[in-house]
Amino acid sequence: MTDQPTPPLPPPLRPNPRDPQEGFEPLEGGSDLPNIINKLLKKPLSIIHKVETEEDGGRIPLRLLFISVVCLAVFGLVVGTFSWEHQIWAAPVKIVSGLLFSGLICLPSLYIFACLGGLDAKFRTIVGVLCGLIALSGLLLVGFAPVVWLFSVSSNSIAFLGFLLLALWFVCAGFGLVLVFRAGRALGMTNTGHLVVWCGVFLLVTLQMTTTLRPIVGTSDKFVNFEEKKFFLAYWSEQLNREWAGEESEQRPFSD
Amino acid sequence: MSILSSPALTIPALCRGERDLLSGWMAGTSRGSLQVCVLFIVVGCGSYGLTIGLRNGWEMAGYVAVKLPAVIFLTLIVNGLLNGMLGLVLGSGIGFRQSLQFLLTGFAIMSLILGALSPVTFFATLNMPPPDAPGSYTWHGLNLLLHTVTIAFAGILAHYRLLGYVREFAPTRRAGTHTFFAWLAGNLFVGAQISWNLRPFFVSPGLKVELLRPRPFDGNFYEAVLRALQNVSPF
């Protein structure tokens, strides 16, 4: 018998933050576009869960693609306001088509590398993961669109704007690639090392695509220049050198 | 059940290394396993070989698409007897059919990786200037580096997976390891020579596109390496 007071109970344990299944739960609120956008930002794994487990989950990748196209087109429109003229429509077309084509050519390697890492999922789920990556990146790029607009109307430097756009792409793609890793772990991957390689390949392809479809920022006589082949680092170096030599300055239609 | 009816369904199980699939292949209870591996090697290495040769035109692309799988098959044919014997004499208990199945499985995984990466290398090749453009030697070197790194990556990944399978199948881990490295040494030795005989895979600037160089069996890979070392050596 003791008069000692009962010690207070310890606080409940928080869920294991490393639980790979955390967030991989049924999608709440239906499959309509506003809810998909909402869940893409808050609970993206629930979207992947629907694609993998439900019979009608096959429509989700199409909705994610639609979100991707709209978001990237809006972002491209803002990028096009740097140069105006035909870049108003050319920049969105190039950004949308370039990113979707990059995803398409990287899709087979994503599937194989995910399987090598132990993933046990349907092919359409991998398609959903890739579409989720592009859609989430596109959504976040739209969030940065006002920032891009601000710098595009207050700067004449193609190199600066190009650098800003690349930095934003890395940030937004980073969030999308984290989704790929989380989805992989939730779907049974035990070794995500292969996905690291795939992420490097995907980023390299998107960077080269910006040079293949040049110019996206700035003006040119041609819509695209497929005849002159350049590696993206060589092209960026050329542009920097030209700007520093004073050869390149964007003639702004509304500048002072 | 025959897997020939839907080989595509085998791809994820093969990549994941599912034990049921591999046990069935090794025991010979799953019909069509050798044919499926051959199919994966032809399609995967063929599509990747196409992207290697494409820089020098579609004719060269066709040649390498045929020659790359051929290097693998010819190596396994030349070394078939040796690989089976090594498996038995090194205590792994792996006989002739099973050694062929193991090695085809490893090459099939490598081919799946290369085939999956072929759209990316195709895109990279399309972005390279033609061989007669300025800076051709630099681009040739970059092209060689790209494909060497990709093939090495796929090969290391696939053979690391194969090492695990052989160790599990053998009665002891040590016997499995010895058998695997004996196969690897033999196949690398013969494979390098067969690649030499079937050259060119990359057309150096200034040389013409051909299926095989004149007198393909005149000289060997190791003599060429020795001559190259002598050329760069101060002695």
Protein described:
The complex is a heterodimer of chains A (256) and B (235). With 256 residues, chain A is an all-alpha fold. Chain A has one domain. In chain A, α2 runs antiparallel to α5. Chain A starts with 32 loop residues before the first helix and ends in a 12-residue tail after the last helix. Chain A has helices at 33-42, 44-53, 59-80, 87-116, 123-154, 158-186, 193-212, 232-244. Chain A is globular, with a radius of gyration of 22 Å. Chain B has one domain (7-232). The radius of gyration of chain B is 19 Å and the shape is globular. Classes of the chains: A mainly alpha (256), B mainly alpha (235). The A-B interface holds A 104-106, 108-109, 111-113, 115-116, 118-120, 194, 197, 201, 205, 208, 211-212, 228-231 and B 11-12, 15-16, 109, 112-113, 115-120, 122-124, 126-130, 133, 142, 153, 157, 161.
SS element count, helices of chain B: 8
Q: Taking Cα atoms only, what radius of gyration of chain A do you get, to the nearest Å?
A: 22 Å
Integer-rounded radius of gyration of chain B: 19 Å
Largest sheet of chain B: none
Q: Name the helicity range of chain B.
A: over 70%
* Mean model confidence by pLDDT of chain B: 87
